[in-house]
Amino acid sequence: KAGVTQTPRYLIKTRGQQVTLSCSPISGHRSVSWYQQTPGQGLQFLFEYFSETQRNKGNFPGRFSGRQFSNSRSEMNVSTLELGDSALYLCASSLGQGTLTDTQYFGPGTRLTVL
Amino acid sequence: AQTVTQSQPEMSVQEAETVTLSCTYDTSESDYYLFWYKQPPSRQMILVIRQEAYKQQNATENRFSVNFQKAAKSFSLKISDSQLGDAAMYFCLHAGGTSYGKLTFGQGTILTVHP
Q: Residue A36 in contact with residue A46, Cβ under 8 Å?
C-alpha cells in the first residue's frame, strides 16, 4: 500500500504570498491531519479533517486553513505568508474518525521557505 | 491545554545497550492516549509505541517498552538492545480530551547510537 504523499516537497515563496500544500492519504484512511515543525516551536498540530469536515483545530491564526475532498485528499492553505511560516509541514493520515487518538501515518513533509 | 515535557534534549547510547527517554505531561483529562514517534534524519516520522491511558499494562513493541505512571503523569520509553537504526529524534505525544489543542507534542529528544 502506498504511503502518505505530499506535494510539493520543497517550496520557496515571498512574504505576502499565499501557498497551497497537498496531501494524499493512505488508501482507506479518511482522517488527515496537518502539523508544522520548526526548530524554535517544535511540532505543532494545525488541524484534522474527517469526511470533509474539520474535526479538530490547533492554536494557529486564521491565515492557516485547510480542506478535505471526497476522496480524502487534503489541502492546506496559508495566506499572507510571513517569515515565521518557514517550516516543514507534515501531513498524516489515520483510520480514525477525527479523534486524534489513532496511530498517525506521516508523509515526508513539504519544506516551505518564506523569503 | 495539555503540556508535554521531554527534559532530555539529547541522549546517547552504545549499540546493544539500553536507554530510557523521559516524558512527563500535564493534563486534566482522564481519557487520553500517549505515543512515542521517531523521526530518523531525512526520513518520515513513524510510530514507535502507543499507550491507552485507561490500560494499566505497559505497552511493549519488540525492543521498545514504556513505563506508564498515570498518577505521576510520566511516560518513559525504554529501548533495549539499541541498534544503529534507532538513531533519530523521538517525540512524546499526548492525544485526546476535550480541551483546546487536543494533540500536543514534546520538544523531542535526539538519540545518538554509538557503534
A: yes
Contact A18, A64 (CB under 8 A): no
Nearest to A103 among B44, B47, B104 (CB): B47
Distances (CA, A) of B89 to A80, B36, B47, B54, B96: 31, 10, 12, 27, 23
* Cβ neighbours for A104, distance < 8 A, ≥ 6 positions apart: A33, A92, A93, A94, B37, B47
Of B95, B106, B108, the CB nearest to A100: B95
Residue A100, pLDDT > 80, answer no
- Residue A73 contacts residue A22 (beta carbons within 8 Å): yes
Q: What is the pLDDT of residue B30?
A: 79
DSSP letters of A24-57?
EPPTT--EEEEEEEETTTEEEEEEEEETTEEEEE
How many C-beta atoms lie closer than 10 Å to residue A67's C-beta?
15
Nearest-CA distance A96 → chain B (Å): 12
For residue range B44-101, what is the model confidence (pLDDT) as tens digits? 999 999 999 888 889 999 999 999 999 999 999 999 999 999 999 999 999 876 544 4
Residue A9 CA to its chain's centroid (Å): 12
